[in-house]
Each structure stands twice: as structure tokens, then as C-alpha cells.
Amino acid sequence: MMSSYCVATYRLFDDKADFHKKAQGIAVGLTVGSWTELPEAKKAAMEKHLGKVLSVEVVESASEVRYANIQIAYPDVNFSADIPALLVTVFGKLSMDGRIRLIDLSFSDGFLTHFSGPKFGIQGVRKLLNVTDRPLLMSIFKSVIGYDLPELREQFLAQALGGVDLIKDDEILFDNPLTPIEQRVHICMSAAEEAKRETGQSLLYAVNLTGKTSQLGQQAKLAIAAGANALLFNVLAYGFDALHELSADPEINVPIAAHPALAGAIYPSSYHGISASLLLGKLMRLAGADLVLFPSPYGSVVMPIEENLAIKEALLASDSRQATSFPVPSAGIHPGLVPLILRDFGNDVVVNAGGGVHGHPMGAAAGGRAFRQAIDATTSGISLEEYANTHQELAEAIRLWGVRT
After folding, report:
1. Can you point out the beta strands (E) in 76-164?
2. Which residues partner with 230 through β-bridges?
3. Of 93, 124, 226, 331, which sits most exposed with the smallest number of CB within 10 A?
4. What is the band of 1 on the pLDDT scale with cuts at 50, 70, 90?
5. Active site residues
6. What is the pLDDT of residues 151-174, one digit of tens each?
7. Residue 296's closest CA among 353, 372, 233, 239?
8. Residue 265 contacts by C-beta under 8 Å, 6 or more apart in sequence?
9. Tens of pLDDT along 214-238?
10. Nearest to residue 125, comparing CAs of 325, 346, 320, 342?
11. How buried is residue 243: exposed, middle or buried, by Cβ count under 10 Å (0-12/13-18/19+)?
12. Is 372 in contact with 177 (CB distance < 8 Å)?
């Protein structure tokens, strides 16, 4: 029966509420609106639209806030097959009704047929880069505002010479007169080719896709025509449907990296919002993100490790018809954190660094090499301290930032 329903899991906090009654009120209120007042003849016709309470698990403890985990099934017939319609159905006005948090969503087979997921996914990105056997390394433009094209090219080249696999724009780099997107792509991809002649390594440049929502597709195609081989997209500012449209467009044939900007307004509260694993994991993958950035549990913008691992599981779960997406734990990452990242995320992870590359005492190229050395050491089972004895770039990074264990 549940094959034609999407199921929402909530955590509802209340010291006194009858949670079973509350769950029934949600199931009816967010679907048919009223049930007991309907005449019997009308009930038969409306049955297919009625939400159904699947479970109510009450948790009471003298030392904790009283809450219940509630599962409610919503008929697919009630909403169009897009993520905005589903979110408005299951959590639109309900998100404003006291202390309630959307923990998870599961989708019907019918709903999933409208989503092909990541166009490239982990395996596709690896194939583009010809890197199959190690974690990937990404670096970030720092800084970007007020720089002109030659300055950006110089910064790009330094990063590329360090052996990074991906370079991404900063999410606050918008189209502007100093560095318009087509010219930015052209000069950065020329720098990528210059670096490749020295390193022998291909890389992806994720250029920040910005502007009016109605023009995003056109902007993406202009960037690709100029040579862009990846896109960065601030998904939550534009909406999941904008990501889905970009990913589903056959002419936008490059990987898309999803940035988590604005996520901090939605997931961190224990009592409100949407769980990180759903917001930055399951929904990003469903909408088509090939790589998903999120705050790491180690660096400067910290997310609890259990939430990080839940995002990872959502992006890598094998029980989905969609391709898997690369987890990209970010913010405050330096080479001394690489063993922790690989311990927690395994081989299918992108190590993402800004200041950890640019702040290296020997320059950005050395910063990239220090990260590659840290990755090589860790994947070979060698401690960073031992590896640093014969690798100067890593030694300097450890001297500055240390090693976290």
C-alpha cells in the first residue's frame, strides 16, 4: 500500500501533548484538512488523499525533554512530483507549529521515477579525472572579491601546480565586471592546461553559477561553452528544484558541486528545522548533486561527527537507484586533519581546503603538495610525522598546524 506514498519522519517535542492525537491531526490537517466532519459519501472519495499515521514512538525520561518520533505517509496523488511540492506538503506550515523537526523522508517508487540523481556521481567524477584509487583533493579561491582576471589566473595556477584534483570558486564570487564568468572560465582553464603540462594531471574547475533563477540554465551553458568542466551551485538559496533542472538538462554535461550556504539557518537546532542528513544528504543527491559540501567535524565551522556520518551515509547509500555523490567535509581543513577525514569517510571523499592550501609557508603550490603527501601517507598506513621526515611541504604544514588524532 505504501508504494504510492512518501513517508515523513518527525521528532515532536512537547511536555504534555497526546502525541498519538497530534500525529493524527498532522496526517489529516496536511492532507484533506478535516475528516470527522465529512459526510460518509465524501469520505469514500477522499480516502485516497488522506494522510496515514504509520507509527508514534514516545520517549519519556526524567532527565530529557519529552518527545515522540512520528511517521506519516502522504499520498503521492496530493502533490506534483517535485521536491518543493513535497517539502511544502510535509513540512510547510507544520514547520511553524511548535517544536517539531523533520528528520527523514522516504520516497515512493513513483516519485523517484522523476529523478535521475547525479549525472556523474562518484564514479563519473573519478573517470573524468582518471583517479580511481585515492581520495580527491579540492582547493578554493581565497580571496576573490576585487581581484581582476590576471590575479585570479595567478592564484588558480599556483593551486593547480600543487596537484589538486578540483578547484572551486568561492561561493561569494558572483558574476561581476572584473571577472565575468565566461572570461573567468577561459583564463582559469588556460591555467589548468599550463599546470597539466608540468604535473600531467587533469583537474576540474567548479565555476560559481549565479544570477537570476530564470537565467541559470543559460548561464551554465555559456560557462560550458567557454570551457567550464564543473559547476558550483548555492542550492539552498535557489531551491532544490533549480538544482534538479540543471542536473537533468542534457546540455549541462558537467559535474555539479552543491554548496551548503544558508544550511545553518535550517539544520542546527535540536527542536526545529530539517536534519542535516536529509537537507545536505538525501535531498542533494536526489536533486542531482555530484559533490556535496558540508561543514566538517574537525575544522572552523564544526558539525557534530554523528551528523557528518549521517550525511555521508545518505550520499553513499547503495539502496538508492541514484548514483552516489561525493561527500566533501569542509571548513578549516589542513593536512594534519587528513588521517581523521580518511578514517571517518574512507576512500570516497573529497578533502577540501582553502586556507590550508593558501596559508602554507611555502605558498599555495606547496600547500597542495602537502595535502597530497598527507593523503599518500595515510592511504599507505604511514604516520604523517614519519612521512614528513622526507617531504618538506608536509613537514612545514605540520609545523604550522600540527596533527590531529
Report:
1. 100-106, 136-140
2. 206
3. 93
4. very low
5. 93
6. 989 999 999 999 999 999 989 878
7. 353
8. 273
9. 999 999 999 999 999 999 999 999 9
10. 325
11. buried
12. no
